[in-house]
Design goal:
D-Maltodextrin-Binding Protein, domain 2; globular; DNA-binding; 310 residues; LysR_subst-bd; transcription; 44% helix; alpha/beta; 24% strand; HTH-type_LysR_regulators; four-stranded mixed beta sheet; LysR_HTH_N
């Protein structure tokens, strides 16, 4: 088993096709096929199901893919750190951000890293809290911003921001920040909500169960962009932190009002793996991330956010 085989394997796994994988790797197709055959001979199991319209991972392939991604990521981290060993702080930092906060933080964070630690290379991945937690546990990201999670032996967290949940709708909804909407007021209204077990959906479902409120959920989606599009299209109201649609609220494309009786809020935390040391480049990058998050809250750019960090 060597790096060429692993890279070919992951390329085929991602594209589902040897031809596309060869194009991605700038190789000829027979060379990629040969690397896959050698790898399958080495592990002693087929890694792909050869189907009419492509190739899909077998159970053995799925298991190997998880380890292969981590192995190549660790090598990339090592290369980045070695390449800048004489240039101060250097290395690869992988960070997971939530869809609702990535636009707010990514550019300012990347600019700060480039200005203060040019030897650090940043990789930013977007995902919902459950996905980010899995990546954090598997080592695919060094740190992540998550919704508040339960205490865990393998994850350490620091609370950063508390933000309320608002009812969001199109302009004709008449929603206004000065007029909170009681949870019971959502009964009988068409709603577009995240699919379970999304963190916001869990908060809303729990509050409804306690208050004995039945909701009319017209559409469920696990994509923030689709959620926004459906509300803009008049398919119903939704529940989101205002930062998730800040530009639309400022421009008047969407209207919003705080959710009340009960008021619901979520806490965003900085999460790190508890079982492994945090490398110096990661610590340096996270200091800048926290600084930029605090700056966004204090300046008011992070709508309705309340700073909890030190």
């Amino acid at each position: 088993m060597d790096l060429k085989q692993l890279r070919a394997f992951l390329a085929v796994a991602e594209t589902g096709n040897v031809t596309r994988a060869a194009r991605m790797l700038h190789l000829v197709q027979p060379a990629v096929s040969r690397q896959i055959r050698l790898l399958e001979d080495d592990v002693g199991a087929p890694l792909f199901e050869r189907e009419r319209y492509g190739m899909s991972l077998t159970r053995a392939g799925q298991a190997l893919a998880e380890h292969a991604r981590r192995a190549l990521l660790e090598l990339d981290r090592a290369r980045a750190e070695i390449a800048g060993v004489d240039e101060g702080v250097s290395g690869l930092v992988t960070l997971g951000l939530l869809p609702s906060s990535i636009d707010m933080l990514s550019s300012a964070f990347a600019s700060a890293v480039a200005a203060e630690y040019p030897g650090i290379r940043v990789c930013i991945a977007m995902g919902y809290a459950g996905t980010l937690l899995q990546w954090l546990q598997s080592g695919e990201v060094d740190a992540a911003l998550l919704y508040g999670i339960r205490r865990s032996a393998d994850i350490q967290t620091s609370p950063l921001i508390e933000e309320p949940l608002w009812v969001i709708g199109p302009p004709r909804s008449g929603l206004r920040p000065s007029r909170p909407v009681p949870l019971a007021g959502l009964a009988g209204r068409r709603l577009v909500l995240p699919s379970a077990p999304h963190g916001i959906r869990t908060l809303v479902d729990h509050a409804c169960a306690v208050a004995n409120v039945a909701l009319d959920i017209a559409v469920e989606t696990n994509a923030l962009s689709v959620q926004r599009s459906l509300v803009l299209g008049g398919q119903g109201l939704t529940v989101l932190p205002p930062i998730a649609v800040a530009d639309d609220l400022r421009s008047g494309k969407l209207r919003g009002a705080p959710l009340a009786d009960p008021a619901l809020a979520r806490t965003i935390v900085l999460a790190l793996p508890a079982g492994r040391p945090t490398a110096r480049p990661v610590r340096c990058a996270l200091e800048l991330l926290v600084r930029e998050a605090r700056r966004a809250v204090v300046s008011g750019s992070w709508l309705e956010g309340r700073w909890l960090g030190e």
